[in-house]
Amino acid sequence: MQVTPTALPEVCIVEPKVFGDARGFFMESWNEARFNEALGQAVHFVQDNHSRSSRGVLRGLHYQLDPHPQGKLVRCTSGAVFDVAVDVRRSSPNFGRWAGVELTADNHRQLWIPPGFAHGFVVISETADFLYKTSGRYAPECEGAVRWDDPAIGIQWPLDGITPQLSAKDVAAPLLKDAKTFA
């Protein structure tokens, strides 16, 4: 596997080795020892999540605060998404900065989003299946969110004139300056 830092050094693109031939492909999508060695830290996942969404659905920007922060290893197994991480650690020199990468069923890329970063994605294909491995259990009392279109962050979502479909929770999310974040 190859691990490449994004514009936010802690957020990394993970590219597994893919072996393909006329029959299709094979890849090892998860190996804890190899992942931890490549990342240079110990990460243990406790929960897997799966979502299916249609074109224009935008989920995020979500995170979990202490004492139940979550790191996420995400990938798209069907279709394509534009995936985003935002640094929500007020003490970080990268606070409020974002990194985005296209994840598709064909490119097999994964994105590691450590605790302290908000996460979101928009579906850019007709539909997409999206898998999350999380390093912390879901704890609703620790939920945090930031508006997807906060001008202070300035994410360049590839919407191509489409109005994104949002949950009521995402519509009500605060701007970063007003959100509960990490110290």
What is the topology?
Elements: E1 2-5, E2 12-15, E3 18-21, E4 24-27, H1 32-39, E5 47-54, E6 58-64, E7 72-78, E8 80-87, E9 98-104, E10 110-113, E11 117-123, E12 127-134, E13 143-145, H2 168-171
Summarize the structure.
The protein has 183 residues and is mostly beta strands. It is built from two helices and 13 strands.
Structural commentary:
The structure is a single chain. 34% of the residues are buried. The strands form three sheets. This protein has a six-stranded antiparallel β-sheet, with no helix packed on it. The chain has a five-stranded antiparallel β-sheet with strand order 9-8-11-6-13, with no helix packed on it. Strands 3-4 form a two-stranded antiparallel sheet. With 183 residues, it is mainly beta. 7% of the residues lie in helices and 41% in strands. A hairpin with a 6-residue loop joins β1 and β2. The chain is globular. The protein has helices at 32-39, 168-171; strands at 2-5, 12-15, 18-21, 24-27, 47-54, 58-64, 72-78, 80-87, 98-104, 110-113, 117-123, 127-134, 143-145.
* N-end to C-end Cα span: 33 Å
Query: pLDDT under 50 segments (min length 5)?
Result: none
Taking all residues together, what is the mean pLDDT?
A: 96
Order of helices and strands: EEEEHEEEEEEEEEH
GO molecular function, one term: dTDP-4-dehydrorhamnose 3,5-epimerase activity
Catalytic activity: dTDP-4-dehydro-6-deoxy-alpha-D-glucose = dTDP-4-dehydro-beta-L-rhamnose
Keywords: Isomerase
Pathway: Carbohydrate biosynthesis; dTDP-L-rhamnose biosynthesis
